[in-house]
């Protein structure tokens, strides 16, 4: 793993008590400034209405002093990613997002740009899932099928965004999030999993990993 990688992996864009992305504002602005990125490429592929989703992100981030452009507005997504200093991959459905990234030939490219060339990667929810080694620990329904569950691989472990701690004595008797993650850990292909509570951020700076934001995280291992 190259030490130049930079990433902010958010559990969510929304967190109780904060407006959209407010809890992550300082981290996002600091990372963009550090990377001298005045323009942020937004990847809206996890939702179907690209224009509406991009407009929502523009309304939040552009008042912070950074221009936001939707990747779907570029005639050549590969060329746009190659020229970018920073991208933000938004949330929605993880399966839809990864399928579209494969269709646009962006999975390996983003890996190379982040790990070898220092492009800043910001992801939220589904955008965080696809930054990991695989999407096996997403909470989403498989509404479409990507060619592989293997993801971008900026970090070599899994993340479970929107992680919810087990609450005792509740009437619902379905599997808890901990039980679902334990099912994954029983598989031969599994490794460690970070359960990011809403408002948590995994900050990746070279070989350093730091949990920041609000509400924290839980680490699951075999």
Automatic annotation (TrEMBL):
What is the role of this chain?
Hydrolyzes dipeptides containing N-terminal aspartate residues.
Q: Name one GO cellular component term.
A: cytoplasm
* Organism for this UniProt entry: Plutella xylostella
Protein name stated in the entry? dipeptidase E
Which top EC class applies here? Answer: hydrolase
Source organism, top-level taxon: Eukaryota
Q: What is its EC number?
A: 3.4.13.21
Location comes to: Cytoplasm
Task: Return one Gene Ontology term, BP aspect.
Answer: proteolysis
Similarity comment: Belongs to the peptidase S51 family.
Q: What keywords are annotated for this sequence in UniProt?
A: Cytoplasm, Dipeptidase, Hydrolase, Protease, Serine protease
Which InterPro entries does this entry report, sorted A to Z?
A: Class_I_gatase-like, Peptidase_S51
Molecular-function annotations in GO:
dipeptidase activity; serine-type peptidase activity
Instruction: Please give the catalytic activity noted in the UniProt record.
Output: Dipeptidase E catalyzes the hydrolysis of dipeptides Asp-|-Xaa. It does not act on peptides with N-terminal Glu, Asn or Gln, nor does it cleave isoaspartyl peptides
